[in-house]
């Protein structure tokens, strides 16, 4: 059986030698973490949150890493594919695909916030135009395309430098931008910039994680099949990640002493963004190290179907579109044992249904 698995992995790599399978595994991990995080957060009773101690604090921290991983991986994958035909500009097939995919994510994000029961009554829910993860991810992809087009003749390294610089600028300016008044903008547009109206994922700072992943993808595009590449990638990614975790606050503080600007003073409160990116890079490094053990068919399929899994989980857990979800009936009411057991069945059920549906669709069209 083990030999069959190894042969399957070799055949997969031959079929698509340029595909980075550890990224699919990382996407699978991120979506599973997101599902269990949403399930536990929505249904776990309040008393355990207050008395959960170390275990709950660790879970909450890991949950906070999930979204940064998702944004970083999305930027990585999309830009990695964009780099394959970098000098083609508008003719690059990934440009139009990226715009279409980004627009689709934005559309789906808004549709999931519709409650058709309210719509049939002639009204729309007030939270319809709040920006969540899909809208922010979609616009991030479109912005990467917009940044790429003027730079496709300037060389990949300049584009990478631009992407990395944007990450730093967005993380540094996050605190300063929170102070600005966006009342002059239409509500739906200001929701992409400020959390004041209830938006969870605004472009600042979340686009910064996408550009960080996009910047990182350029190094992997150089030649991932070169001997010793993955060892170097592991060591460099791990080292930068640890450096960001341990020294972000001190570096921004010392820089603020040298350059007395409101930007750096406010940025000190947001140094956690750099530390969080460091955690993402450490997770990247772990998946790079374990890449040969993660090429299991089911893991890769989950990683390749994250959008469908996200949509189904939103409908089942939050009642997206229908208004009837688990959180409506069991909001903050389940014990820890019920939540753990429920989360296992929730993950297994959602993923199984999506993968079985995908298999049936392929059978119909093949």
From TrEMBL:
Entry keyword Transmembrane helix: yes
Transmembrane region(s): 20-40, 60-83, 104-120, 132-151, 158-177, 197-221, 233-252, 272-290, 302-321, 333-356
Key words of the record: Membrane, Transmembrane, Transmembrane helix
Location of the Heparan-alpha-glucosaminide N-acetyltransferase catalytic domain: 19-227
Stored Pfam families: HGSNAT_cat
Record-linked InterPro entries: HGSNAT_cat
Record protein name field: Heparan-alpha-glucosaminide N-acetyltransferase domain-containing protein
Organism of derivation: Flagellimonas sp. MMG031
Taxonomic lineage of the native organism: Bacteria, Pseudomonadati, Bacteroidota, Flavobacteriia, Flavobacteriales
């Amino acid at each position: 059986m083990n030999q069959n698995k190894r042969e399957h992995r070799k055949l997969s790599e031959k079929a698509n030698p340029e595909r980075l399978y550890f990224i699919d595994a990382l996407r699978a991990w991120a979506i599973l973490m997101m599902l269990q995080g949403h399930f536990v957060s929505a249904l776990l009773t309040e008393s355990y949150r207050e008395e959960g101690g170390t275990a709950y604090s660790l879970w909450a921290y890991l949950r906070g890493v999930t979204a940064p991983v998702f944004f970083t991986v999305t930027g990585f994958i999309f830009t990695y594919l964009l780099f394959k035909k970098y000098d083609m500009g508008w003719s690059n097939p990934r440009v139009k695909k990226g715009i279409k995919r980004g627009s689709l994510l934005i559309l789906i994000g808004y549709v999931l916030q519709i409650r058709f029961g309210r719509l049939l009554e002639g009204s729309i829910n007030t939270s319809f135009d709040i920006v969540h993860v899909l809208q922010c991810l979609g616009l991030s992809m479109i912005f990467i395309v917009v940044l790429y087009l003027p730079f496709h003749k300037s060389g990949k390294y300049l584009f990478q430098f631009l992407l990395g610089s944007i990450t730093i600028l967005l993380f540094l300016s996050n605190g300063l931008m929170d102070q600005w008044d966006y009342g002059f903008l239409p509500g739906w547009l200001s929701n992409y910039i400020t959390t004041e109206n209830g938006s969870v994922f605004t472009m600042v700072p979340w686009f910064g994680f996408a550009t960080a992943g996009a910047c990182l993808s350029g190094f992997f595009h150089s030649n991932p099949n070169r001997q010793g590449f993955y060892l170097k990638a592991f060591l460099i990614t791990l080292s930068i990640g640890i450096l960001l975790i341990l020294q972000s606050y001190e570096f921004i503080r010392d820089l603020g002493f040298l350059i007395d600007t409101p930007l750096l003073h406010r940025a000190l409160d947001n140094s956690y963004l750099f530390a969080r990116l460091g955690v993402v890079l450490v997770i990247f490094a772990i998946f790079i190290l374990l890449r040969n053990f993660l090429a299991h068919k089911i893991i890769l399929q989950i990683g390749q179907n994250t959008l469908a899994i996200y949509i189904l989980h939103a409908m089942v857990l939050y009642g997206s579109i229908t208004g009837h979800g688990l959180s409506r009936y069991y909001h903050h009411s389940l014990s820890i044992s019920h939540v753990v057991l429920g989360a296992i069945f929730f993950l297994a059920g959602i993923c199984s249904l999506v993968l079985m549906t995908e298999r049936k669709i392929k059978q119909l069209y093949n």
